[in-house]
Amino acid sequence: MNDKIKLFNEQSIKYAQTQLNDIAIVNKSGIMYNYNDLYTEKFAELIVKECRTVINDVYHKTPLELCGPLLTVDEEIMNHFYGVEKLT
Predict the structure, then answer these.
(1) Contacting residues for 87 by C-beta, under 8 A, at least 6 apart
(2) From CA 22, how far away is CA 88, in angstroms rounded?
(3) Which residue stretches of the chain are H helix?
(4) In whole angstroms, what is the distance from residue 8 CA to residue 36 CA?
(5) Could you tell me which of 43, 33, 50 has the C-alpha nearest to residue 13?
(6) Looking at the predicted structure, is the pLDDT value of residue 78 above 80?
(7) The whole model's pTM is what?
(8) What burial class does residue 11 get, using C-beta atoms within 10 Å of its C-beta: 0-12 exposed, 13-18 middle, 19+ buried?
(9) Any domain includes 22
(10) How many domains does the chain have?
């Protein structure tokens, strides 16, 4: 397994264990979460964040006139995973 994935796994386990006070918790929307839900949500969040970091790194190495598609990809990721609308 990739070292980054191992790190994300460890962070997700720690997050889920820390967040879980009892057998289940309820979020602001009234949705009940268990350990697996918390772990999966955190793991996915870390992967998406890492993808956005890679895009950002490539953006800073790319000539300005070629950066448009990178910004579009980042906006689409934000919209898809976080429900953030474009700021146009």
Answers:
(1) none
(2) 43
(3) 3-19, 35-61, 68-82
(4) 15
(5) 43
(6) yes
(7) 0.71
(8) middle
(9) yes
(10) 1
Q: Does residue 58 form part of some domain?
A: yes
Summarised one tens digit per residue, pLDDT across range 15-61 is 988 887 655 566 666 666 788 888 999 999 999 999 989 888 898 88
What's the one-letter identity of residue 74?
A: D
So what's the pLDDT on residue 83?
80
Are 16 and 27 a contacting pair, CB within 8 Å? no
- Choose among 44, 46, 24: nearest CA to 35: 24
Which residue segment(s) compose the domain that 29 sits in?
3-82
Rounded Cα distance between 81 and 28, Å, is 19
Residue 88 maps to a domain: no
pLDDT at residue 76 above 80?
A: yes
> How far is residue 44's CA from residue 39's CA, in Å, rounded to a whole number?
9
